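Reproducibility note. Readers wishing to regenerate the assembly model reported in the main text can use the exact inputs given here. Chain order matters: entities are listed in the order in which they were concatenated for prediction.
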Amino acid sequence: MADNRAAVERNGGMRSEILFAAAKIIVEQGYESCTMRTIAKMVHITAGSLYHHFASKEEIIEEIMNIGTVALLHRVENVLSELPDSTPFPERLAAAVDAHISALLRPDAIYMRVFEFLPPVIRKRSAAMRRTYANLWLRLFEGGVAQGFIRRDVNLAWLVPYAISAFNRVPDWYRPKSRDEPGIASFVADTVLRGIARR
Amino acid sequence: MADNRAAVERNGGMRSEILFAAAKIIVEQGYESCTMRTIAKMVHITAGSLYHHFASKEEIIEEIMNIGTVALLHRVENVLSELPDSTPFPERLAAAVDAHISALLRPDAIYMRVFEFLPPVIRKRSAAMRRTYANLWLRLFEGGVAQGFIRRDVNLAWLVPYAISAFNRVPDWYRPKSRDEPGIASFVADTVLRGIARR
Amino acid sequence: MADNRAAVERNGGMRSEILFAAAKIIVEQGYESCTMRTIAKMVHITAGSLYHHFASKEEIIEEIMNIGTVALLHRVENVLSELPDSTPFPERLAAAVDAHISALLRPDAIYMRVFEFLPPVIRKRSAAMRRTYANLWLRLFEGGVAQGFIRRDVNLAWLVPYAISAFNRVPDWYRPKSRDEPGIASFVADTVLRGIARR
Amino acid sequence: MADNRAAVERNGGMRSEILFAAAKIIVEQGYESCTMRTIAKMVHITAGSLYHHFASKEEIIEEIMNIGTVALLHRVENVLSELPDSTPFPERLAAAVDAHISALLRPDAIYMRVFEFLPPVIRKRSAAMRRTYANLWLRLFEGGVAQGFIRRDVNLAWLVPYAISAFNRVPDWYRPKSRDEPGIASFVADTVLRGIARR
DNA sequence: AATGAATGAGACTTCATTCAT
DNA sequence: TATGAATGAAGTCTCATTCAT
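Running the prediction on these inputs yields the following structure tokens for the assembly.
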């Protein structure tokens, strides 16, 4: 459930193996190294055989991108929806930031990290879904404003992409020491919260 | 002087024309579109002729990457060094953030923006120089701590890459309305400062 | 009976469905579009399943080609054999030309039209059968000579392929206006007859 | 001047070598055998190198097709324009038929024969030029009608494609015995003329 | 019979690079 | 310096065919 790899695996083992292999290559070696040949080699078939499972390379990449985006969206949505409605904003924010960042940091959360490695041209294709995700955060912050936790002069239209882009880059520079070190998500959530808090 | 194009121009006009062309292509069309042929076409020579100026494509890319990093480094260094030593940390931070972000947002600051478009494999080659830049920010923040503006519990080893990566992504989502709108850099500097401030 | 689809249907419905599908694709979309996959899709099976009915693509194509040639041969033979032996040559010629051309023009006469769409390499394989068909026409014309309707100086060895190739191309350029317009066959028969007639 | 290979050769030896090689393969082995690799092999370069001379395979094929069509058009046009205006229709027809057919029969007239080997989809691209050629023949026949050599009831809209398609197929079946045997063109011209003649 | 997955060859094309001129 | 032609590797993709299930 770290990402929906399990869900994918239900139908067509090879199909999900291919998606996983491609995602792994992208995150570990970069988008340029992700060719039909390298993907095929990783799942022990030939490049041509990939076309029995996907119509094109584009389809593979797009599917990976969407899996990752949807997984991230669902994960944060779920975490927030499990909190009582009465939960104060700081706690909600901490939970959401933790959901986002700790998801990215899991060694098996390949799909969610893919997006950051894709060339801009391709990224644009998931613009709609990314906007949905951004809206989730916007509503979260709007709740914070309504509850009086956020200064009224904070421009939420800037805050949302600023925050999300900062979250997304954490795996680039953060090397966890112990597997469950919670510190980094707290640090980020705390820094963001104080950055926009009233008082 | 937005970046050190002038400096480059000293040794051979064509050489710098090539670098500029390659950088422009990368930022405007993506790394994938930056081939020896597209570069050559932009400077009105043939692909083969590029090899009279550079030993390989790698050399071109690497040089661009370094130019950008060095330019950014010098820019922020200069801004900070022009401030009196007595300048309080908040002001220094604001100046540095503004230097970094507004540099990236200038339409002609091609070199500095290149880095974000390069594949990870290539990016790694400028790790040393990026570390130098990170150290500049580390010293800045350490000053803030020494002056008592930053909480002692803030992990600067996390803060620096967190902040820099957030800065670098601003051009991805921020579309300036008027040419000289200063708001975005202030917003970022302010949010960061409050995020780490004592009290 | 326009072609011998009925005869084919005796052994195995699927077998003839495949042949018909392949012929249809060739005539309507061109030989290049006729792949094992496109054939399979048209008969609602998979490409691999085709091999339960035919040993190879070659076999399919060759069979179609032969069906068409044989169908044409039989059709013209039948028309001629139904005429009384006393029928004068001009009438026999008109009947034969009509049989050939109007067969090609029928929307359902797929098999007979296939030949003109096949690459030369493949066409050559039906050379023997085509020669048989040519001989039919040769005998027809020899009858015309014997009856004194054809000038003695006409080289029948040239006339036969010249005429047949002209007939075969009619569907390329002739677009019938009404379904039963008989004009085109008459035109061709008339032009050929006058072209070789005595006096 | 049999075709404009000479003219082509003036600019870029390799370019015309490629065109000639491709045309040769198409006529001798069929369109299916004409791949970038077979073309390249014939001119002793690699497949990739072909792209220094042509942007795509399509460009090569189209150029060949046009060279052939134009060459045929010019050839017949020239022959007719060299005849005095007073030349009676039968003589004009004989000259035109001879120009067309004997051109096709020359061993070096590769380009002009290519058209008949191309798949319909590709042929359509030269429809305009082929129409121009058809118009040339239409005017020729209209002259015959005006001079009273052709029966008024002959449908010229049918006659033109009927005749041209018959001419084009001559190389398929006619094997010249001596190099300059003129018989076949006379035979065809004669047969056509009598086929449509008044009286 | 039928399928779905796989294959290996080969299709067109692009790329960084080399080198004689 | 600059070029234009060439290369070899690699890219995506299609095809006829095979075979265990």
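We highlight two features of this model. Residues 14, 45-46, 48-49, 52-53 of chain B lie near DNA strand F (CB under 10 Å from a C1'). Residues 5-196 of chain B form a domain with the Tetracycline Repressor; domain 2 fold (CATH 1.10.357.10).
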